[in-house]
Design goal:
Helix content is about 45%, strand content about 10%. By secondary structure, the chain is mostly helical. α1 packs across α3 and α6 packs antiparallel against α7.
Amino acid sequence: VALSAHPGEEPSGDIIVISAPRCTLLRATEELGLCKAYHTGDMTAFSYHDRDNFPGSDDVQGFLTLAERQYIVKYELDGLRAQRDLKIPGLPEGLRLQRRDNIWQKLQQAGVVRGMFPLNHEDQLKALSDAWYSGNQLVQPLDMIHAYFGGTVAFYFSFLDFYTWSLLPPAVLGLLLTLFS
């Protein structure tokens, strides 16, 4: 597992930014069984050793959605285990990492990590909000939602869109019955 941690831009120094290099993201994509477009056009479970046959895999920013990259970083953090017994510097003696302890959970329990928030990609978020709030209000930008938030959130908004439109005929019928009865 290779994750990069560096201080954030917060003056107090309370924020740590964690990211993953390209090889970690791609290996985790395979481990998680994420499906991506193969060179034939079919959706296939990604394989790191066959990555040359997945168009765009050399550009991780375009190959994986923001939501997928964030999920992979969280997955990798949750999988961090102590290799041996260790004392966490600056914490009481009772808060030790035992071999095979989950490091991330132990840091959260000790209060060292108080929260975890994914960073926004400002350009993509601006484009999404522009597409959503301007133009045709009857159609949601589902492709942009999928690219930014991932498939689950896009599916949710797609369902809401379908549900709203499917309630229109009973609403019109109810209004007509109320007016003419």
